[in-house]
Specification:
The protein is mainly alpha-helical. Helix content is about 55%, strand content about 5%.
Length: about 180
């Protein structure tokens, strides 16, 4: 098992004890069920930005991403223009990748369309297979949402519980998932 006991006595998935930033993320967020559309949209976008990079890089820039992308309010981001793309390309606080920035704006527009039918939470929680969720997001025009990215999103947002057996967060996450009412 890839577990680590931190100097605080807590047993974690080893990656979750590798840095203070990861400790907080692992213990308080990762694997906890989320039904808030804005948080779900944010995580899908950040997982797209993470593609090819470490999650720690994105995690450390998360507040800058939130500031740059209007708190990931997809209704606001959907109205971003080419001027916003150029502004974001100059923002050293985020990952300045034109394709990922444009994908985030595109995905915000797709999220607005989706939420005219149902909540984003209802949509994503109706899947348990990352390949099917990725396929259906792509059919709806979303970008940077391949199966690997979508699986990382599912792990983080509690759609699956991948805390290792023996990790102190595993059982609390499982209890939260059991009590969670799917949207």
């Amino acid at each position: 098992m890839d577990l680590a006991r931190g100097d605080d006595g807590i047993v974690r998935c080893a990656w979750g004890d590798s840095t203070p930033d990861y400790r907080v993320y692992h213990d308080d967020e990762w694997g906890r069920p989320v039904s808030d559309d804005t948080r779900l949209f944010e995580k899908l976008c950040l997982e797209g930005f993470q593609s090819g990079l470490s999650w720690l890089t994105i995690l450390r820039k998360r507040e800058a991403f939130r500031a740059a992308f209007a708190g990931f309010d997809f209704h606001q981001v959907a109205r971003f223009t080419e001027d916003d793309v150029e502004r974001l390309l100059q923002d050293a606080g985020i990952v300045r990748h034109r394709g990922k920035i444009e994908a985030t704006i595109n995905n915000a527009q797709r999220a607005v369309e989706l939420t005219e039918e149902q909540s984003l939470a209802h949509f994503v929680w109706s899947y348990d297979d990352p390949k099917l969720l990725a396929r259906d997001l792509k059919k709806r025009g979303w970008r940077f949402v391949g199966p690997t990215t979508v699986y990382a999103f599912m792990q983080a947002m509690g759609l699956v519980n991948d805390h290792l057996p023996g990790c102190d967060a595993r059982e609390p996450c499982e209890r939260e998932r059991a009590a969670f009412v799917k949207p």
